[in-house]
Amino acid sequence: MKSNAKSALTTFTGWTGVCWESDSLRLTACAAMFVANLTPIVIVTAAAGLETSQTAALIQNAMFIAGVATLIQLYPVWRIGAKLQS
Questions:
Q1: What is the pLDDT of residues 52-66, one digit of tens each?
Q2: Strand pairing partners for 46?
Q3: Contact 81/69 with Cβ under 8 angstroms?
């Protein structure tokens, strides 16, 4: 009976066409990317005693650069990038 419940959970979900397991893995990967990008900035700015506005500006810039790097990996510029598929 457990195998039927497991297979029902991972089968085609209907109009979205996405499995529940892959959704949770995508969410986990997305959260890991944000945490890996933000944690060092928060730690360093707290240790340096920077103001909240400066911390916010650094976080915004880091997220922007991470987005640009992702686009370069997806759509290479000259010979830089891996042509990764999303």
A1: 999 999 999 999 998
A2: none
A3: no
Contact 25, 10 (CB under 8 A): no
Distance CA 24, CA 20 (A): 6
Which tokens is 72 given?
């370069």
**CA atoms of 53 and 58, how far apart (whole Å):** 9
Distance CA 25, CA 42 (A): 25
End-to-end CA distance of the chain: 35
Q: Token match 């945490």: residue?
A: 35
Q: How confident is the model at residue 10 (pLDDT cuts 50, 70, 90)?
A: low
How many CB atoms are closer than 10 A to CB 83?
A: 8
Calpha distance 83→75 (Å, rounded): 6
